[in-house]
Design goal:
The protein is of the alpha+beta class. The protein has three helices and nine strands. The protein has a single domain, classed as Multidrug-efflux Transporter 1 Regulator Bmrr, Chain A (Alpha-Beta Barrel), CATH 3.20.80. The N and C termini lie far apart (33 Å).
Amino acid sequence: MSDFVVQVKKLEPMRVASVRVVGENPERDAWQRLRAWAESRGIQENLARQPVFGFSNPNPVPFKKEYGYEVWCCVGPEVDGRGEVEVKEVPGGLFAATTCKLRGDPSGLDISEAWLKLWEWVQASPYKWRTAQELERPLDPHASVEDMVLELWLPVEEKT
């Protein structure tokens, strides 16, 4: 994973079920809550067929162990969002995307280094950052922390 490759991807608008957890390990806890919710409603196939996205909410801050993490999965109009999840309409758009391992490895970047390189790539590209949510997409949401591979999605638009 040492080659730094960026693709510009278009994300279509989507309707998502959203779970947000604040804690010391919110990524794992948010994913487990979303998965349990989807399985209890018989919509776990959404987790297999549709991309799952996550992002820090609120972001980590120095010297504070707790932070938030929100995860999304696509849902249809039959999901009302009452109960443990919130249903949101998410606008689409262009994203600069790259892949990294969550924890990094000797031949690749970890997540913080990959976010920085992605930002630097956008600055030197025909694109510029746009105001929208940065996203992390696990390629296999069931992977262990050691094996987790993520796509990082930075919202962009063409420079004018």
